[in-house]
Amino acid sequence: MNLGAQESVYQLPRHIKAPAICARINNRTRGVPYQFVFLFNSFKTHNHNLNKKKKRKKEKKRHKMSFSISANLSPLPSDREAIVDAIARCLCGLDTADRVLFQSAFTADAVFDLNGALLHGLDEITTSCFDNVSKLDTTHMTSNVRTTFSDDGRAATTTATGVAYHYRAGKGLAMENGGATERLVVGSLYSIDLVKVEEGEGEGEATLWKAKTWRLKSVWTQGDWAVMGALPGNRGTEEAK
Predict the structure, then answer these.
(1) Per-residue pLDDT averaged across 173-182, rounded?
(2) Domain ranges of the chain
(3) From 173, 180, 210, 236, which residue has the greatest number of CB atoms within 10 Å?
(4) How much is the pLDDT for 198?
(5) What per-residue confidence (pLDDT) applies to 200?
(6) What are the DSSP calls for 136-204, one per residue?
(7) Residue 27: what are its φ and ψ, rounded to 5°?
(8) CA–CA distance, 203 with 14 (Å, rounded to integer)
(9) Which CATH number is correct for 79-228, 3.10.450.50, 3.50.30.10, 3.40.1190.20, 3.30.70.100?
(10) Which secondary structure element, helix H or strand E, spans residue 215, and what is its range?
(11) pLDDT for position 160
């Protein structure tokens, strides 16, 4: 194509975070101008960097994929079973990073006592507990659940034993791959006051048992408390020691 004396200007898209790169193509130059080669290589480098960033993002997300089921079970469980499920909703929500499932285990005005550190209200419980623990590689297990109900059947007190394994994000399988990794294993006692909450209106409304006060006391540990980061009640802090 004869462009006459006019030169065409080609510039990389603005989203490329680098000094502006321009290539001028002179109509008198035969073959592929060196500017085109430079431009092509710049695009290749940019795309390669983008792909690397996307790959790293996928790898970060891959280790924590939520596959939890709904908070409402079918068929409906008995009250005693539903209380065990309230504990499971909290702990499975942490293990699978399922915020909705985790929050379904607490009333809006709940109090969470983590080794004496009090979290007031669902928002604080979520930001201080869920946001810190759910990003780790964890497994929480519960046993020895015992429950006593109020006379009207609308409230209950439950005690249970818990064992939880915590690894830094993405490091849960490091030992399997022959590496070494930090972890914290905690054995805890739970004492939980729960209430029966009706959700929805009319016939067939959903009923969930939710924790109004959850007290957690760690009784033994193995590993490094530093894994828990800024979690309130972290006994690895100087204050807790």
Answers:
(1) 78
(2) 8-62, 79-228
(3) 210
(4) 85
(5) 58
(6) SEEEEEEEEEEEEE-TTSSEEEEEEEEEEEEE-TT-TTTTTTT----EEEEEEEEEEEEEEEEESSSTT
(7) -65, -15
(8) 57
(9) 3.10.450.50
(10) strand 206-223
(11) 99
